[in-house]
Amino acid sequence: MDTHALHHYPASGELARWIVVGFLAGAASVLLFHQGMLAVLHAINFAERAPYSFAPTAPFGVPQLWSLAFWGAVWGAVLAATLGRLDGARLLAGAVVFGAILPTLVAWFFVAPLKGQPIAAAGVPAAMAVGLMVNAAWGLGTGIGLALFGRRHVH
Questions:
Q1: Tens digit of pLDDT for each residue in 96-143?
Q2: Which terminal CB of the chain, N or C, has fewer other CB atoms within 10 Å?
Q3: What phi-psi label fits residue 50: left (phi over 0), alpha (psi between -120 and 50 degrees) or beta?
Q4: Helix (H, G, I), strand (E, B), or coil: what is residue 36?
Q5: 49 contact partners, CB below 8 Å, separation of at least 6
Q6: Average pLDDT of the chain?
Q7: What is the predicted pLDDT for the residue at 7?
Q8: Using CA atoms, how far apart are residues 80 and 74, in angstroms rounded to an integer?
Q9: Distance (Å, whole) CA 106 – CA 147
Q10: Which long-range contacts (CB under 8 A, 24 or more apart) does 122-127 make?
């Protein structure tokens, strides 16, 4: 196994930096990668939902884009805490898999019922694929942010 690709969990100061960068990268990734992927899918008529929506969300009326960015930040911190030992290509691959699976499952089985929406996109394959793709793109963006800014680079 490639020993430079796996690291010991960062020291507490580095761990705090890693998680804060994950939080910020997660929010930025919603704006660039998640919504960017949704824009592409919407442009080719694969996704019904338009990107960058400012429609109010229940119950507080927060614009949808800012709600997504907040939750992307929270998930980014969770991703960072989960994948703190990975680096390089393993970090990026892990972030894509994490993004595709965990936030998507939570959206399908917890968030959707709370909002009165069908579980797992009502089992419609195209709608399910959209969730997986936009969240995988979010994971990639968050992983790139962590790879670029998460650790101090010694020169």
A1: 999 999 999 999 999 999 989 999 999 999 999 999 999 999 999 999
A2: C
A3: beta
A4: helix
A5: 38, 42, 130
A6: 92
A7: 54
A8: 10
A9: 25
A10: 126/46, 127/48
